[in-house]
Specification:
Chain A: One of its GO terms (biological process) is glutaminyl-tRNAGln biosynthesis via transamidation. Chain A: GO terms for molecular function: ATP binding; glutaminyl-tRNA synthase (glutamine-hydrolyzing) activity. The complex is a heterodimer. Chain A is of the alpha+beta class. Helix content of chain A is 43%, strand content 17%. Chain A folds into three domains: 2-355, no CATH class; 369-483, no CATH class; 491-550, Arc Repressor Mutant, subunit A (Orthogonal Bundle), CATH 1.10.10. Chain B contains five helices and two strands; from the N terminus they run αααααββ. Classes of the chains: A alpha+beta, B mainly alpha.
Amino acid sequence: MALTFLRGIQLNPSMLYPSSYFARKHGVLYCCMRSAQTQTATQEKEQTKLKVSTQSQPKAVDKFLKDFEAVIGIETHVQLSTLTKAFCSCPYNYGSPPNTSVCPVCMGLPGALPVLNSKVIECAVRVGLALNCKLSLNSKFDRKQYFYPDLPKGYQISQFDIPIASGGYLDVDLPLEYGGGHRKFGITRVHMEEDAGKLLHTDGVDLFGSLIQVDLNRAGVPLLEIVSEPDMRTGIEAAEYAAELQRLVRYLGVGNGNMQEGSLRCDVNISVRPIGQLEFGTKVEIKNLNSFSSMSRAIDYEISRQVELHNQGQIDQIVQETRLWEEGAQKTVTMRKKEGLADYRYFPEPDLPGVTLTEEYVNSIRESLPELPEDKRRRYEKMGLSMQDVLFLANDINIADFFDTTTAGGADIKLAANWIMGDIAAYMKNEKVTINEIKLTPQELGELIASIKDETISGKIGKEILFELIAKGGTVKGLIKEKDLVQIVDTAEIEKMVDKVIADSPKQLEQYRGGKTKLQGYFAGQVMKESKGKANPKLLNKILLEKLNAKN
Amino acid sequence: MGSISALHYLKPTRTTNGTSLFNFSKNRISQLPVAFRSYTVKSSVLEPPDVPRLAETARISLNSQEIEEFAPKFRQVIDWFGQLQAVDLQSIEPAIRADTEGDNLRGDVPEKFENREELISAVPSFENPYIKVPKVLNKE
């Protein structure tokens, strides 16, 4: 059914309503969602590609959408950055040669027994607390049976009816481009489980009847599955929820949250219902979302697709299924239909003891939690920073740390924010480096700001020094001394230079006094040159003006 | 703690003929709402074992004669387990796991398995560096 429907769409590109409708917005969206170091070429490429189809957009979709509400819930898998796997001591490093980090436990050999990595519990408790969850002091592992070659044991060790954490929430600030605003999204549960291996369907191997390549390095790597309440209503909200989870795991240091590597994977459940209706519509699951922007676009596409089916009186065509997001075509396509509930035949994992947490343990972890993104944003807000500054600085834990260290040293808050978001961010973007890779230290940034503020150097020279500090390192004091950059604030010295320039430019002086007063700029430039850029501009202009007009 | 609030679920419900059984039915377990703690004892209804279904989940093929042979055997085993239902648990706090000594955790210290060659040599179809398996369709 849905297949023929999809074919119909392909044949009529003019009817291809949803993807392009939302396209324009998204170019802007992910600038703010992605961390500073990852936003580059791809987004520009996508943006231009998307623009092509924006013209022929039927306005009708907009009208339809207003009568409907989408209900969105997200399942996120966070890969934990432990040194070893969840149940065996195999080291895990992304990108290791295939099948090199394996042992009898993660290969599922008979008789091999799992032993839980204590770090996995620690990470789960950290995330559970950070998500304001209730923790189960007694939980356990369960076996989830499924039969697939990426899972050598024939079952996944997971948690079923008693997750380690449940009933929490996550605070999110929406990007300003979309009107901003604060949201609180419910967290249903957080549980621990193991990852499966990787399957590779290689070139030249046809889909029917031939072989699949299996790499078991990832089998047994610890994951946290975080399930949200169905609290999101738009693609933007969903993408920002995911971006906030990424921030959270990075702040907590439990994972790298890298979507491209699959360290953060989001599956979205989405249904639409007419506004005012209480029960949910039929939900569809979307997989293969490997960036926040594709998440947002996939959801908006899917909302439009479902709303369109409602409006065409074809609600029965919305079936419970898993759909894949196709980045190239900018649409979702059927992957598999669900036929009844999957039968995982869960039962308590007999090879592992229960998981017991003590109050003391939980408290010690609670005390060791860093300042979380939400707290940081509220603190920055109270410091008087604009929301734009707040969102930028708190987005990346390393940038936030840099800013915090700079201001802790007494640097002016707004100036520190401006330098970081301006010249420093621009440098990092151009050179594709992170803030930890630049040579400038927060202490020297503070020193630089102070030196400009107390007029030791001019703002212009400050900027020049900044780039040297970023690229080569060194100290502000050292550079000022080495290059003799101290700003000239001595009136007599500036007067001397002004006199010299005026004396050297009789023609211009005559013209100036003849009424061509905009020549003041010429004189100012000459004096600045004379001072090698070091003259205090305010003082320079004041003296210059006096002298130029003096003999009139 | 959750275990206390769950106590009132505990009263075992006897089936009409006085026996109860260990319930393997898929729906019983997988349809439980997430928040529900399924370690509580569910009331049991004697259902005949669905042998073709069990065979399918175990990925073994049985012919109709074998299915007929197995059915009473399964039933025997289930009834045997069913005797457990007769135990009075009224005053007992439910345990989610059997007691073991301590948590038996390990530190996050990497250790490479030394005999990888033997592991790999036991793989029926290995083409360096990948394990090769037939293409299978997910039977969910």
